[in-house]
What does this fold into?
Amino acid sequence: MNLTNEEQKEVIKVMESQMLTLLHGEYVKKFEEDFAIYHGVKHAIGINTGTAALHIAIAALDIGPGDEVIVPPFTFIATASSILHNNAIPIFADIDNKSYTLDPKSVKEKITDKTKAIIPVHLAGIAANMNELKEIANDHGIFIIEDACQSIGAKCNNKMVGSIGEIGCFSFYPSKNITTGEGGMIITNSDELAEQCKLIRHHGEPSWYVYNRLGYNYRMTEIQGAIGGVQLKKMDDFIKIRNENARYLTEGIQNIEGIDPPYVPKYCDPAFNYWIGRIHPSIINMNKMEFLNKFPRSKILYPKPLYKTKLFQEKIAYPKGCPWSCTYYGRDVNYKDISLPIVEQVTNEIFALDIHPNINRETLDENIETIKILANK
Ligand SMILES: *Cc1c(COP(=O)(O)O)cnc(C)c1O
It folds into this structure.
């Protein structure tokens, strides 16, 4: 089991202390220190969700009305909605045909004089191509916020994901590599950004009744901090099992024509969150929905590029058309006109399988058998 009496004992200690918020207790502080050390960074800041971590990160970099931020369309909604929360404009770039993470070439084409940041997503435990993205960001003087929510523990060129750009964001939702129920973390090496993130997490209030900027209540609770501290100690073991399960599935379907296992780029040490498979409909004579229906254990992952959802097609965010209608922006983005060929093909061919530590070998074997049958092998 993922959560055991080790977490339970720590939670009981928090309750006995009678101090449930980070303003009074020590558990979030300790979790933050351990998380920073694990990632080799100066600062870690405990947040109540991964979504809030992204919202804060963008605000801390002073990105807002009139600014563009480049994101992949093959991700969870929070990567893009956190830009809208800050009244800035999400601009979608295409993904790489093998890693399914942000394609640096497409990013380059999307940069304008309004671009302030790129948010690469480390997808299901596979790192985005940070070397190339960083080079582009440096060339154009723009920031990188890493959405490492679903890839905690993965590495890119031997560096922990989240520690490579200006700010890294993590989530501890139950589906992620470690969990606190709900929860998130921000990491950075910048003293100034860390200070701003802490301010925004807590009402812009550095001391009682002093308000220095617009903030929120995005604090992690002590119970989350206590669970997270124990989970972090177990994380390397979890990731080992996840990676081993992924390797087992990949080997099991290795030579089946028409089904691709996940691709691990040379620069990446993965921390598999899901195992993402790809079907070639013309080879297996079946489209994605038929495949998914005949394979109930498989998951749909992201069914369409984010820009095809109603939120973007009809631009429904703040009243009066904001942020798109903002006079600071003064341009027109029509998401109906966007067509990114790779993501549109990939969303029609992708399925995901669980490889979490509680899954057993028989389930993995059954999954391999099902794939073989569906691919007529
Ligand atoms: C899970 C996830 C988030 C959001 O995390 P929450 O903790 O659920 O708010 C953001 N981005 C990606 C890519 C995620 O997978």
